[in-house]
Amino acid sequence: MKKLIIIKYGELSTKKKNIKFFITTLKENIESSLKGLDYNIKYDFGRMFIYSNELETVLEKLKYVFGIHEIMLGYELDTNDIDSIKENVLNLLKNKTFKTFKVITKRQNKKYPIKSMEISNILGGTILKGIKDIKVDVKNPELKVYIEIRNETSYIYFDAHSGIKGYPVGVQGKALLMLSGGIDSPVAGYLAMKRGIRIEAVYFDSPPYTSREALEKVKTLSKILSRYSGYIKLHVVPFTEIQNQIRGNIPAEYLVTIMRRMMYRITERLMKSINGKVIVNGESIGQVASQTLTSMVVINDVVSTPVIRPVACLDKLEIIDIAKKIDTYETSILPYEDCCTIFVPTHPVINPSIEKATLYENRFDYENLIKDAIKNTKIIKLSPNDKGEFDELI
Asked: What is the model's pTM?
């Protein structure tokens, strides 16, 4: 009897013609997360099985891999003989304390001569005879005993840990995340990855208006998010000169609108340079002046790329709950402001017009400034377990 981890796919099993691509991508992502560990994986379209002498460490790593529905720590028998299953179930239950139980059987091998319900009844009777002072409870048992019968093997497990579900990162292509130091954009990145999107991130750096600590904060957020994808490339855009021109030429109420339009233009061009498909950001409808529907229309007008807003219809408390769950909240609330918040006027326009925005921004040569900013953008590749270095220049 071998101890192992069993993975259930959940939503992936509905993919039919694409199931091989989804599952092989999941396997590749798991292998990336387990780099440096000693393990072996086998899989089919129903289950994935991981063998290792470091199962507890593997189990911890798998908690961050999208595409997993459930994770079970179980036992593999190299037979599906019912007597052998009965003997091994009893041996495993000797180390467990419980008053009520239920046996749940699944036959992947439909040619197996005993039906699932009969197997459950046989094993239930064996357990009742072998262990004193317990009873069956089919509705709310303290312990669930799972049996799976396959072609030449069988599996026993008791505890099913919920995975983080979703699709494996990468199956939907790539996107560029507009990552500020706030609460919303890291959550948006997490939710995008959950739907199978591999993200890179862009941050607009405006020294001396923004501090070195603000950049370090965004790097930390990127590292936290990289737990779910293996790595994240962070594009650091020098934005100071554009910011200066906006402050010197644009009416105060339109500062944020024009700034966001410039950011969108830059983000779209960087996104195309990495063969991305969409832009992702943390905009939430109505949360600030630049996120009214009218503002979104005016800001969005400068790009032709689809913009995905995963938190658009969540309220702030819902976003905070997710931020706490994924461990970004405490970093996001550190008091280091980004350039989106540092120059917010007292009365920003909430219903801007495209005509006025276009008129105002034509007061300075933003096109050459954008080209210079992109030319001088630096890329930091960040992974969960390293410090991250400037390792590539655009």
From this structure: 0.91
